[in-house]
């Protein structure tokens, strides 16, 4: 990520999420809260391209899954969750250099499950729609 892209994200109120593992490889992942709504973003780079030179679908799915999971944790007030079902529908291609943003929405919380949806956008275009079910795990 270029210094100017990072400066632009910071100026717009985004903060980098401390990550490890797979997400650390494709990140940085950014987050912010706007009017009480959690938002997450990835600024796409050349490392995110597929064979057609567009954003790899797995990057979009990872952003959707992680952002929904993080929002589920905040909403349920529980630290440990597991994705037990996740559907993604690709609507349009993402282009390298675009900032992809996910704004998850909690549909319902039960004692053991969180149902959540999101749209991944680039500027004013919807790139993907996703929905998932997250299992609230017992604390260890």
Automatic annotation (TrEMBL):
Matching Gene3D superfamilies: Hotdog Thioesterase
InterPro entries with a match to the protein in the record: HotDog_dom_sf, Thioestr_dom
Domain of life: Bacteria
Domain spans labelled Thioesterase: 53-125
UniProt protein name: PaaI family thioesterase
Source organism of this protein record: Bradyrhizobium aeschynomenes
